């Protein structure tokens, strides 16, 4: 095709010549746009990668200042690290379980029977973002019975409130993409009860919404500092802050590993979501 | 060839032994939504194994009636009897009714086979017979080669056939069809229409079919219930409904009718120079009457001194429909397309009524 076009151009056909030069200039324009995109991407990547690289370089050093993986082995030996990791994991699992058990049926009910209430839900679920964590923990501490106050799972209950805005939005988008009423009615007419409808029909179709809600909750629990610290529990962020080790490199490395783990999980979700999306379409 | 054009194989008569469905009675149902009465004393008796279509314009209550039968709506007043038992308080999941919806309702996370087997799984049927039954039903609807496909891999017509197989899998007491063809294109719609009717006749399952498409209702149903403002206007066989509409609403809604002012003499009226008997009951104490004419009730003859003028002409295939302005009325008439060349726009014509009797109604006040 290109040689044919060139043939016409050589014959001196003005109109074709004009088209050719126009398409040529548009190609140049595209190339310029690509350069622009490349630069923007590069700058954005540099903004994130340079500090990450600097922190990794700082933490992965031996005492002579040379690159070494030795600090990785030291993490596990750092005092209280494993117990902090275990506590954060327990809290994350408990928070995810409670928030999903609470929110999935509620959201399905609101979408099916009280669609007008969605606006109210939206406002209610945004409150935890507006209310400062310090107000939340002081308030909660004032009304909590002693037996609960002494339990680590009080933190999970508070995290449920903090996770609500993210979980609400993920589930709202997931449910909005389904023809919920028809699916529920079809399942009911075939003899399905509500538990079976939620478990066999809706949950499999809300997989990516549930996954993103879970990961956002996980990230929240692994990143929350104020409430855990004020309530006197050593979760991972509190451990990093308290630094019960005299080696700042290990603390930095732990923070970097947490960041890396979050990135990997997020990428997994995106790829999973894409796969299920392509299956649906 | 697309799967949509397949017809079900003829070797599947052993799928389910013919059995008689349950009788269904809607008794004086009323259902309000706010200030609107969706159903207003709706009553209908359906015989076992009968195919009944609920036909009517949007908002006439036909879908509400079906949803009440399915258990998705509860009536304010009235009873729904299935097999002689009132089911108003029985939850939808315990009614054993197979339903096919207007929008595609297959579970997106399940293959065609798993969709069909879903109801059987809920009935604790073991895996092997369940899969075999699901495959039999998919074969019955002509989708034997698509059992492992997911809904997004199937066309609209195929999805509705899977939905039909899924509804039939649970051997329902009543099959409910809520405008299952309206999202499909014309060709697939016509094929699926014939397929549903053939299946229903073979399985002899009581079927309630909701539609706003008169052609669908007339071609598929044993009886048609024309609904208006929440109640049944007329319940009759398709032929009776068409030839003997009980009211002006039915006459206007089923088929096309033209209104022509007529003069009454005793029990007949004078129309286009002929005396025709009044069909059924004429409105009492009303002097000015209109005749309601079907396009095939009128013959058109070209005449230079004719009183009518052709104002519109549309080709419908075998026939051509003419609109004729005559004495202030607009009359629609069908002529064979092979003879339609003589009827040009503006041609003067005479009309001759060819029916023996005619439906009359009170004249509309001039607007």
Any chance you could write out the topology, listing elements then pairs?
The complex is a heterodimer of chains A (281) and B (367).
Chain A: H1 2-10, H2 14-59, H3 70-77, H4 81-113, H5 117-130, H6 133-143, H7 146-149, H8 153-176, H9 180-189, H10 194-205, H11 207-223, H12 226-230, H13 236-242, H14 248-280
Helix pairs in contact in A: 2-14, 3-14, 4-8, 4-11, 5-8, 8-11, 9-10, 11-14, 13-14
Chain B: E1 24-33, E2 36-46, E3 51-55, H1 62-70, E4 77-82, E5 85-86, E6 97-100, H2 112-122, H3 127-140, H4 156-169, E7 174-178, H5 186-203, E8 206-211, H6 214-220, E9 223-228, E10 231-236, H7 238-243, H8 248-253, E11 258-265, E12 268-271, E13 274-278, E14 289-293, E15 298-302, E16 308-315, E17 319-326, E18 329-336, E19 348-353, E20 357-362
Parallel strand pairs in B: 3-8, 3-9, 6-7, 7-8, 13-20
Antiparallel strand pairs in B: 1-2, 1-4, 4-5, 9-10, 11-12, 11-14, 12-13, 14-20, 15-19, 16-17, 16-19, 17-18
Quickly list its features.
heterodimer; A: 281 residues; MetI-like fold; 2 domains; 14 helices; B: 5-stranded mixed barrel; globular
Q: What does this protein structure show overall?
A:
The complex is a heterodimer of chains A (281) and B (367). Chain A is built from 14 helices and no strands. Chain A is mostly helical. Chain A has 2 domains: 58 residues, no CATH class; 207 residues, MetI-like (MetI-like fold, Orthogonal Bundle), CATH 1.10.3720. In chain A, helix 2 runs antiparallel to helix 14, helix 4 crosses helix 8 and helix 4 packs across helix 11. Chain A is globular, with a radius of gyration of 27 Å. In chain B, 23% of the residues lie in helices and 34% in strands. In chain B, the strands form 4 sheets. Chain B has a 6-stranded mixed sheet with strand order 6-7-8-3-9-10, with helices on both faces. A 5-stranded mixed β-barrel of chain B has the order 11-12-13-20-14. At the A-B interface, helix 9 and helix 10 of A face strand 6, helix 2 and helix 4 of B.
């Amino acid at each position: 095709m290109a040689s044919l076009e060139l043939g016409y151009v050589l014959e001196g056909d003005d109109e074709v010549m004009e088209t050719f030069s126009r398409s040529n200039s548009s190609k140049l324009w595209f190339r310029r746009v690509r350069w622009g995109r490349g630069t923007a991407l590069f700058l954005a990547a540099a903004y994130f990668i340079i500090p990450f690289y600097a922190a990794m370089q700082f933490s992965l050093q031996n005492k002579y200042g040379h690159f070494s993986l030795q600090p990785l082995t030291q993490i596990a030996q750092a005092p209280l690290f494993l117990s902090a990791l275990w506590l954060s994991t327990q809290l994350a699992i408990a928070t995810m379980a409670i928030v999903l058990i609470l929110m999935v049926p509620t959201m399905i009910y609101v979408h099916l029977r009280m669609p007008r209430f969605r606006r109210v839900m939206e406002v209610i679920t945004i409150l935890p973002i507006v209310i400062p964590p310090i107000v939340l923990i002081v308030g909660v501490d004032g009304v909590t019975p002693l037996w609960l106050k002494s339990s680590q799972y009080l933190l999970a209950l508070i995290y449920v409130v903090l996770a609500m805005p993210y979980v609400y939005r993920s589930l709202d988008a997931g449910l909005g993409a389904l023809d919920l009423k028809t699916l529920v009615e079809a399942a009911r007419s075939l003899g399905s009860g509500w538990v079976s409808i939620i478990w066999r029909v809706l949950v499999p179709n809300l997989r990516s919404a549930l996954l993103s809600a879970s990961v956002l909750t996980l990230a929240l629990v692994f990143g929350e500092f104020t409430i855990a610290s004020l309530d006197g529990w050593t979760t991972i962020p509190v451990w990093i802050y308290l630094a019960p080790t005299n080696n700042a490199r290990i603390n930095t490395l732990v923070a970097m590993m947490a960041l890396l783990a979050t990135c990997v999980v997020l990428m997994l979700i995106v790829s999973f979501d894409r796969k299920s999306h392509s299956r649906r379409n | 060839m697309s799967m949509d054009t397949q017809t079900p194989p003829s070797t599947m008569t052993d799928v389910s032994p013919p059995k008689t469905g349950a009788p269904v009675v809607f008794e004086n149902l009323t259902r309000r939504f706010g200030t609107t009465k969706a159903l207003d004393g709706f009553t209908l008796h359906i015989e076992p194994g009968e195919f009944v279509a609920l036909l009517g314009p949007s908002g006439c209550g036909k879908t509400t009636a079906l949803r009440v039968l399915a258990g998705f709506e509860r009536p304010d007043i009235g009873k729904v009897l299935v097999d002689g038992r009132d089911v108003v308080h029985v939850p939808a999941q315990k009614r054993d009714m197979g339903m096919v919806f207007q929008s595609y309702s297959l579970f997106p996370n399940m293959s065609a086979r798993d969709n069909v087997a879903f109801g059987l799984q809920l009935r604790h049927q073991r895996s092997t017979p369940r899969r075999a039954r699901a495959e039999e039903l998919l074969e019955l609807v002509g989708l034997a080669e698509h059992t492992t496909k997911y809904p997004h891999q199937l066309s609209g017509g195929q999805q509705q056939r899977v939905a039909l197989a899924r509804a039939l899998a649970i051997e329902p007491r009543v099959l409910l069809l809520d405008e299952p063809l309206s999202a499909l294109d014309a060709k697939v719609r016509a094929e699926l229409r014939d397929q549903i009717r053939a299946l229903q006749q073979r399985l002899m399952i009581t079927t309630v079919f909701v539609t706003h498409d008169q052609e669908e209702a007339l071609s598929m149903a044993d009886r048609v219930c024309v609904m208006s403002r929440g109640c049944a206007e007329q319940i009759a066989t398709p032929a009776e409904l068409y030839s003997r509409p009980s009211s002006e609403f039915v006459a206007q809604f089923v088929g096309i009718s033209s209104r022509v002012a007529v003069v009454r003499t005793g029990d007949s009226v004078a129309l286009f120079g002929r005396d025709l008997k009044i069909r059924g009951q004429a409105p009492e104490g009303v002097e000015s009457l209109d005749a309601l004419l079907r396009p095939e009730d009128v013959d058109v003859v070209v005449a230079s001194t004719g009183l009518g003028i052709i104002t519109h002409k549309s080709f419908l295939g075998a026939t051509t429909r003419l609109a004729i302005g005559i004495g202030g009325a607009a009359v629609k008439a069908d002529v064979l397309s092979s003879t339609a060349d003589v009827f040009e726009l503006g041609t003067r014509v005479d009309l001759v009524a060819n029916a023996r009797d005619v439906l009359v109604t009170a004249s509309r006040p001039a607007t």
